[in-house]
Amino acid sequence: MTFRQTDGPATAAAKASISSATAYRFEQNHEMPSAERQPRGRRRPDPLAAFFDAEVVPMLTAAPDLRAVGIFEEMQRRHPELPPGARRTLERRIRSWRALHGADQEVIFRQIHEPGRMGLSDFTHMDALCITIAGVPLAHMLYHFRLVYSGFAHAHVILGGESYVALAEGLQNALAALGGAPRTHRSDSLSAAFRNLEPEARADLTSRYENLCVHYGMEPTRNNRGVAHENGAIESSHGHLKSAVDDALMLRGTRDFADLPAYRHFIDEIVSRKNAQQCKRIAAERPALLPLPGLRTCDYEEAIVTVTSTGGFTLKKVFYTVPSRLIGHRLRARIHDDRIDLFMGATKLLTLERGRAESSGKHGHVVDYHHVIHALRRKPMALLNLAYRAQLFPRDAYRQTFDVLLEKFSEKAACKLMVGLLALAHDRGCEADLAASLEADLAAGRVPDLAILRAQFAPDPASLPDIVVPLAPLLAYDALLDAGFLQTSGFGEGEAA
User: Fold this and answer.
1) Which residue has the higher pLDDT, 274 or 465?
2) pLDDT of residue 443
3) What one-character DSSP code corresponds to residue 467?
4) Predicted confidence (pLDDT) at residue 497 exceeds the cutoff of 80
5) What sign has the CA pseudo-torsion 273, 276, 278, 281?
6) Separation CA 297–CA 181 (nearest Å)
7) Which of 137, 171, 441, 447 has its CA 20 to 30 A from that of 434?
8) Would you say 129 and 299 are in contact if contact means Cβ atoms under 8 Å apart?
9) How far apart are CA 497 and CA 493, in angstroms?
């Protein structure tokens, strides 16, 4: 319009870098093209007009959390003429209504994290990854620790559920690997550990957790019950960690491990790789951490057990066998997540694998046939109706062999032969090799011959070393009585006598 004051429409349009057609059109109408457009109206009737305000809005007001799909199904029931294609229209209309008239929603406030200030602990289930140990499915969880600032992570395989023992062991392992402790430690209240406990036991666990934090100089904190996003720094990393484990399992080609230590080493290696990616931030945070105390605090529970005439004791609805020489003694048991250490006074006797009762409430059994084989030799028929017979057999081949023996022999003969096989495995230390021979006999349909197996697993005389001890003649000892030897040795006659 500035050029138009002195030039014609075409010249002014050329100077303004627009087309002459646009200039002539603007001469006739000074409104912008967008102002001339009329808003597009509906091209088809509104399928919700008859009932949205009258029926849907009262539903949303009475139940703000009601899902749109639930409202749509109810509207289809009330109004059969409502087409299925109107579902998206209803969802958009509900979303718009909630934006204008809905209730206030939760607001998540982003935080600025300081180095060395906060660490978090949580547990996550691993059943979906289908891990097996020697072909047996492993029901387990991961204890997961993480520093908020640097992202340092630690994971520990937990065989039981959430408990103070699992938390104490995993947390102390994490702090030892880190080399320091944060100023505050946050958990999710360990609701799974506290939910079914009596108030006194719940208070005891709470005090033990607080004492654990005090030992390391940390302030214990908990998030609000049911508000998981308050622990978002670790809740979100659960999925990343399990995805990394799943990827590593697929690259490994198998989800089966030879034993539990091999699987734990596998988890430690994956977590170490993730920590290596944050090594600079972890190194920058370490100076801000609290120094660790000189000793760990207890990460176990203690109980006093009495070994009965059955050759074992019952603890937490699980029966454990021990050497029969301990019958009648009271032992102190330290209960860890995966093991039980037995002490007599201050002397450690042995370590047992920790067992757990079945989900149905039935008692469990942790049995070592080495503990009872000497008694079974004297009473082999006790094997027939033994309460823990299934757990007595160290390998599946022994159980299958006993089933075959019961089919082909009398009960007495089957028990005597089976006890002989177990005694052979105990005496000769050939449990695995003997199981392989039993599997071969089962595959061939043969009954194991105890005499042949004893000869097969007897020590080879040719492999035994010949130990010859030369004996000096007794007269050679008379030289020791020589007076010159006694004087040289510093002994007097009286002393020699």
Assistant:
1) 274
2) 92
3) -
4) no
5) positive
6) 14
7) 137
8) no
9) 6
Report the candidate in 164, 142, 165, 171 with the shortest Cα–Cα distance to residue 155.
Answer: 142
Each residue's pLDDT tens digit, 49-79: 889 999 999 999 999 889 999 999 999 999 9
How far apart CA 27 and CA 13 sit, in angstroms, is 11
Sorted by sequence, the CB contacts under 8 Å of residue 90 that are 6+ apart come out as 48, 52, 56, 68, 71, 72, 75
Q: What is the pLDDT of residue 494?
A: 47
Q: Spell out the domain ranges in the chain.
A: 3-34, 52-101, 118-288, 301-366, 369-462
% the chain with pLDDT above 90 = 57
Kind plus residue range of the DSSP H or E element containing 187: strand 184-187
- Whether 224 and 230 have beta carbons less than 8 Å apart is answered as yes
Q: What is the pTM of this model?
A: 0.68
Look up the CATH architecture of domain 118-288.
2-Layer Sandwich (3.30)
For residue 365, the SS3 value is: strand
Q: How far apart are CA 329 and CA 306, in angstroms?
A: 6
Indicate the helix (H) or strand (E) that contains 143: strand 141-147
Model confidence band, residue 280 (pLDDT cutoffs 50, 70, 90): very high
